[in-house]
Amino acid sequence: MSTAADSSRVADAARKVVQEHDPTSVPTREFLAACFDAGLSWVHFPEGLGGLGVSRGLQAVADGILQDAGGPVPFALNPIGYGMAAPTLREHAQTDELKREWLRPLATTEHIWCQLFSEPGAGSDLAGLATSAVRDGDDWVVNGQKVWTSLAHRARWALLLARTDPDAPKHKGLSYFVVDMKGPGVETRPLRQMTGQAEFNEVYLNDARIPDAHRLGAVGDGWRVAMTTLMNERSSIGASGSRRGTGTIADAVALWASRPDLHTPVLEDRLTKLWLRAEAQRLTSERSRATATVGGPGPEGSVGKLVGAELNQQVYEFCMDLLGPEGILYDDYTMRDMERTDDWRGPLQQRFLRSRANTIEGGTSEVLRNILGERVLGLPGDLRADAGKPWKEIPRG
Amino acid sequence: MADQQEARPFVFSEEQRELRAAVRRFAADNADEQTVRRLMESEPGFDPKAWTRLGSELGVLGLSVPEEQGGVGGTLVDQAVAVEELGAALYPGPVFGTVFLAIPALVAVSDGPVRSELLGPLVEGARTAAVAVADRAGAFDPAAVTVQATRAGDDWTLSGTVERVVDAAAADDLLVAATGPEGVALFAVDAAAGGVERTALTTLDLTRRQATVRLTDAPARLLAGPDEAERVIGHALVVGSALLAVEQVGASQHLLDLTVEYAKGRLQFGRPIGSFQAVKHRLADMLVDLEHARSAAYHAVWALGDGSDDPALAASIAQGTASEAFARIAADTIQLHGGIGFTWEYQAQLYYKRAITDAALLGSAEQHRARIARLVLDTASGEGAPSIATG
Questions:
Q1: Could you tell me the pTM of the whole model?
Q2: Where would a tag sit more exposed on chain A, N or C end, judged by fewer CB atoms within 10 A?
Q3: B76 to chain A, minimum CA–CA distance in Å?
Q4: Residue A353 and residue A333: Cα distance in Å, rounded?
Q5: Is A233 one of the catalytic residues?
Q6: How far apart, in whole angstroms, are the C-alpha atoms of residue B65 and residue B194?
Q7: What is the dihedral of CA B44, B50, B51, B52, to 10 degrees?
Q8: How close does chain A come to B279, measured CA to CA in Å?
Q9: What is the CA B230 to chain-centroid distance, rounded?
Q10: CB neighbours of residue A213 within 10 Å
Q11: Global ipTM
Q12: Which of B98, B115, B68, B81 lies closest to B172 in space, CA to CA?
């Protein structure tokens, strides 16, 4: 539970950082380093690791002061790092020294992070992945192919899930590692998507070596570690704007207001429905924040991800239908890498195409409905063809 | 629950949790399915003794009535907690007429002897009330008033007909909007008085009854003159909309629990039907709709209490969300139960009829969306609109 004393401690620390490192004049990395050193990167982390050991809910107090003073939104600069790597490292890295070594440059954005989970043969069934890690002395030797890796071309470090025991059932034979993306045997190639851009990459691992010290969690315990990462991913994707009318719905409302010549009653009701659903979801996020008694993200984050993803698609479908023939033009299909993570917020048509991925990335809507059904409502699981089988005997393709 | 201080939005106090448990126990004892069925098929459609206990022993009919008006001085959130549990049980009693509309209207009226005289017995459950004011989509429209008020000295008489007044057939007091020489005012009519004729109607939902009220020179007492009648009635409709949304949430939660249990226990093809994704995903969607309705309804009762949002917008967000959610969840409850869900003997039909009724009362989801469009879209700015690629 947070106390008023904790809250003012966080606020004092934030005001001190802003005073001593004016975010509008010092370089971003210096400012973020000061935030880390003051324990404001993740206030619920222990002191010395970018936190103050206070309730997670007080992060909003710090962010409010830091960002009001013109500070950056660090999550936008290093999304995998802040959203997923940090909580996983904090919980599972082998030594405090390693935690600090990784977390500080992560926090400053000097080191961008990416995640090597999905494979061509393992999407929703992530636990069926085939990339292998074989022990060799103090190292592990990794071989395989990963896909849909955002930021791999800029990343210094990656979170890797690999198979260390093909004879065990699929969930039991996985281990979790941190990989040096600049090391030998790691090759990154851009993956072009339907928008024409390459926001993601394929990563090929050929005899890449990882020191055993860079393993997170026990050998064979990788699935449990991965759950830390994935629940954090869903809750970060699902987190919607906290003010009414912000987020994707703002695009549709602003477009509507700017084009009175295109208004029809049917379109108006369609937009109102979307606005109402966005508002109900916003209130639901507020309610789940207000009533959260424990710090970690739970299955209710899955509601936010499910609704947010479907809403994004419906919002941009609405915009396209509003524009009609004007909407069926495009700006540029020239293949290019994404330099900044918010580059997808280009012209409307690009946002429209990009939104198709929302119901796939970070857990498909089908998988999320299973999670809500099974973990929240307590419904029985589906029959599984691979239950209890050694991974190597499971049909793949 | 006598705590005047508005707590943090969405966080219920310990007292409110106790209140919830008490009302739930009351509903279990007085509104089990068999009792509900017996009452809905007999007169007057509810158990007046149980209603009195609800008012006097539990004290949950006028929880947000201020202490200076003889109430316990709780908040609208307290009232909502009780309403949610009564909704979950499909409690047959004049909740809509008395708790949703009449008591909030009386609370908003300026102090006076008529108000004091009426409010006490309603809060104690000694009498019940119905509000004979035709709303337009959950809002007050003076042009829709169909009753005329005539003054003779200090006395008033009312004449006219109000169609489909919820809870009117058994009500002791009628609050009636009528057009007088100086405009629309709100009057109290003793339903037992001469000149009051009530025709009970067979309703789709037998647990929520209606009657047509015909007044012929019926004696009336002035509650709110033209200077404040519109504000008073508007307040009652907004509070009623928020409480109705909470009732819809309570009933929806009951149906989701019921259907989840059924899906776990019903076996077909040698396995629980809840293990099939077609069933599981429909239940997941019901959960999302319920969570949205809950957030919107709770937001409305908190915002009406602490003034943190435009009351009309908050009420429309709640009604626009909860009406649709309850109707859909009730329909899906029937679907997921299969054949048993369509029978008279199974409870799904009772809730479905309540869902359809609640959706139509105080404005449909469509009408509330139309209001939201006026309040939100008509005032929106085109600034920050995304660029449009032009080829």
A1: 0.91
A2: C
A3: 18
A4: 12
A5: yes
A6: 31
A7: 120
A8: 9
A9: 19
A10: 13
A11: 0.96
A12: B98
